Amino acid sequence: MTNEQLLLGLASVLAAAAPVLFAVIGETISERAGVINLSMNGTILLTAMGSFAVALRTNSLWLGFLTGMAIGALVALIVAFSSITLKQSQVAVGFVLALLCRDLAYFLGNPYMNIPGPRLLAVPIPGLAQLPYVGTLFFNHTVITYLSFVMIFLAWAWIFKTRPGLMLQGIGERPAAAFVRGANVNRMRYLYTVIGGAIIGLAGPAYSLSVKAGWAGTISGLDGIGWIALSITIFGGWNPLRAAFGSYLFAFLQWLGLVLQARLPNIPSQVLQVAPFPLMILTLLLVNIGDAEWVARTLALLPTGLRRLAVRFLRALRASPPAALGVPFESE
Amino acid sequence: MDVALYDIHKTFGRVHANVGITLSVPAGTIQGILGENGAGKSTLMKVLSGFIRADRGEIRLDGRPVVIHSPSDAIRHGIGMLHQDPLDFPPMRVIDNFILGRKGGLLPGRAAAKRDFRALADQFGFSLDPDAYVDTLTVGERQQLEILRLLWLGARVLIFDEPTTGISAAQKEKLFAALRLLAEQGRTVLFVSHKLEDVEGLCHKIAVLRQGYLVGDVRPPYKTAQLVEMMFGKSVAMGERQPAKPGPVALRLESLSVEDDRLKVRDVSLTVHKGEVIGLAGMEGSGQGLFMRAICGLVRPTGGRVWVGDQDLTGRSYLAHKRHGVAFLPASRLEEGLVPGLNLTEHFVLAEERRSFFVDWNAGRSLARQRILDFNIRGAPETPVESLSGGNQQRALLALLRVPLDLLLLEHPTRGLDIESTIYIWSKLKERCAQGMAVLFISSDLEEILQYSDRVLVFFSGRVTPPLEAADLTTDRLGELIGGKGWPEKGGQG
After folding, report:
1. A96 — contact with chain B (CB < 8 Å)?
2. Which of A181, A299, A306, A308 to mutate to test the interface with B (most CBs of B within 10 A)?
3. B71 and A169 in contact by Cβ < 8 A?
4. How many domains is chain B built from?
5. Is ipTM strictly over 0.90?
6. B384 in a domain, yes or no?
7. Which of A22, A216, A279, B205 could form a disulfide with A203 if both were Cys (CB 3.0 to 4.6 A apart)?
């Protein structure tokens, strides 16, 4: 593989990660507020199909993306209403929505199967795109990919660097304490769930209007992304920067599968296609293994220096979920 | 700020939690609010701090009637409340906890907040690192953080709900000094407690609540007997201390060592005789909890041996220990001890040794009824455990223990209980000690340690004193040891 090919490959990894990134960041924001939006897998499929259909009919890519955000926000609103107002199980409602939206996407998407449609084109950033290596890697993408870069830092800065972001952390961590500090917990939860949903809604069009334009029904290669995004949210410790790392790792593994497939014809292609999924799960296990008692006990047997290192490493990896995740809040 | 409550009424269903309470507290006063669990103290404070609205009555601040809609509304009026379990955000930093809730621009302004934080902390002699994570702080330090935060928000009335539960003696001194300073600055302090020695030593006047009524508002000099009678409506006799007669050996530890990633407890040797009570004193997290879990097989010791009776149980499971007559009652009653959602009958059925496939519910219910009578639990066989009060949960846990038992390990057996329940629990324990059960208990209450133990081990960041005769100890000496002062040069041998 030449340098140029490698660079292009890595640049395609950055672009291909955009849908997962939007999903992960939207979910992170929603879960930070304490609401699990489990409908993600269905939402992504429905937004991919819906955005493509709207963009095709109106011949406007922007309307396509707007449609995606609207669908995402609407599904999130259902999750928020049933869990915050009706106090029903977020898991049950989210799961049913995931299935419903998925089937809806396949059913309503039939007329649009395999029709060529509009697609976002790469916009090289003048001046920067010509830089060696970096230019190809970062500055020759579609607008939506640039937005995915920006979104990582925006979400991170909002959560950790602003006053409302602190309160967002508080609401998901200990709503009673946030309430005492003057937050309208349930209203904020609504708001963040819907905003998170709108961002998740960008994942579909990022795929169907940019990464792999068009709608191909069940063979779109999009089904399952939502579940992976859920696990990356956990792997990312509800931190957009770590979550971004997870998303890129996943996209990289998928790309590696494609590359290896060409070089190792003996391995069935299915193995390499599916491999990123169990690899992600394995990573998740490793990240959270520090909590297990047997690990602590095994570590205790190591020599002191090595043990300290291992403990520090595992502690740095460990991330605890917002304590009130999935718990409804009622002020007395 | 002068605080006055007029004719406050509050009912929950059929329970009349506050009945026509009228109380006035002038600025600069430390007002004690004394009463046993369920007397209505918390309800009254929640009314004042905006958590709940009174059914009837009026609150006046500096003579002006106010209506308080919510806790954040209360703080706008200058009323701040410190909860028994501080309402903060454990995984976040101290400074972020401090800032959270204060109005301001988009950016939190950490640098300016840190300056204010340090200035306030210096005023009270608190040493808190603004960059530390709250989950690494002790309860006492979290209280200090809350005090500073409320003052920063402009609180002129501070309500403390059972603040001395779960903090060390040194921290209590610091807290009391801070409260006195607050009062000197003209702020009003309401101090809610069921601990007589705390309110007597601190408060300028004490209001006593019983079953929703304010039964008196007394000024010093206080007479303990009078306060107790006001609290309970009758006088309660404190248990007399009786030295244990050494019996056969119940537990023998040979240079037991145990550690986790924070602490090492090394080479503790101890022989406990039947009928003996050993108190484990120390600040929370000084190694006593780890030590106790190592004895009963919940944590694997890293060295040494544990003999229960004449059996070597080193490294065996909790189940093996249980079979040999050892039981452990953890501090977190609802998390580790009882099963929330199950009622008393179901608990007794679960705890029964006989395991037939089908449950004989009739036998279970009559067993439950019998135990409820024996242990004076306020509840019915059908009562779910989580709706029992703390004292009744502890009684239920005791009632669940198998008989006979050779060794009982207790973690904070009376934390959060009122005097009557405390005395009852200990009378039951002593009864069983007389029958030959040995007790090891952890407590952060120095009085309890001295009152009920025969011998005491003091823990300080993993170091352990040799067993000390409780009769030779004083609260002052014990307080010093717990704070790490006056230790023998070579600790850990016993």
Report:
1. no
2. A181
3. no
4. 2
5. no
6. no
7. A22
Hey, what are B171's tokens? 């921290």
Q: Is the distance from CB of A194 to CB of A77 less than 8 angstroms?
A: yes
Per the CB < 8 A criterion, the answer to whether B295 and B251 are in contact is yes
Given the DSSP bridges, would you call strands B56-61 and B64-66 parallel, antiparallel or unpaired?
Answer: antiparallel
What H or E segment, with its residue span, contains residue B65?
strand B64-66
Mean pLDDT of the region B261-266: 81
Does residue B357 sit within a domain? no
pTM of the model: 0.78
Verify whether the Cβ–Cβ distance A177 to B300 is below 8 Å.
no
Structure token pair of residue A39: 């409908």
Interface touch B72/A181, C-beta < 8 Å: yes
**Rg of the Cα trace of chain A?**
21
Three-class HEC string of A189-230: HHHHHHHHHHHHCCHHHHHHHHHCCCECHHHCCCCCHHHHHH
**In the beta sheet, which residues pair with residue B32?**
B191, B206
- A27-39 per-position pLDDT tens digit: 999 999 999 999 9
Picking from B59, B64, B53, B68, the residue whose alpha carbon sits closest to that of residue B10 is B53
Looking at CA atoms only, how far is residue A123 from chain B in angstroms?
33
Give the closest-approach CA distance of B262 to chain A in angstroms. Answer: 11
**A299: Cα separation from own chain's centroid:** 33
Any A CB within 8 A of B112 CB: no
Nearest to B326 by CA among B270, B407, B399, B251: B407
Pairwise CA distance, residues A83 & A325, whole Å: 12
pLDDT band at B146 (very low <50, low <70, confident <90, very high): very high
Query: Best interface-test mutation with A: which of B10, B12, B46, B100 has the largest number of A CBs within 10 A?
Result: B100
Interface size between A and B, measured as CB pairs under 8 A: 72
pLDDT digit string (tens) for B226-259? 888 888 776 665 555 566 566 788 999 999 998 8
| Closest Cβ opposite residue B259 in set A177, A180, A300 | A300
Does A311 contact B99 at a Cβ distance shorter than 8 Å?
A: no
Q: What chain A residue is nearest to B51 in terms of C-alpha separation?
A: A332
Question: What is the residue range of A229's domain?
Answer: 3-265
Q: Which of residues 223-262 of A touch B (CB under 8 A)?
A: none
Do both B265 and B212 map to the same domain?
no
Domain membership flag for residue B491:
no
Residues B180 and B225 both lie in one domain: yes
Q: B7-50 pLDDT, tens per residue?
A: 999 988 777 889 999 999 999 999 999 987 778 888 899 999 99
Chain A (135-174) residues lying within 8 Å, Cβ to Cβ, of chain B = 161-164, 166-167, 169-170, 173-174
Q: Specify the amino acid at residue A300.
A: A
Inter-chain CB proximity B46 and A162 less than 8 Å:
no
Give yes or no: residues B116 and B205 share one domain: yes
Q: Is B105 on the interface with A (CB under 8 A)?
A: yes
CATH number for the domain that contains residue B95: 3.40.50.300
Same domain, yes or no, for B225 and B269? Answer: no
Question: pLDDT tens digit string along B78-112?
Answer: 999 999 889 999 989 999 999 998 988 899 999 99
In chain A, what is the straight-line distance between the N-terminal and C-terminal CA atoms, in Å? 65
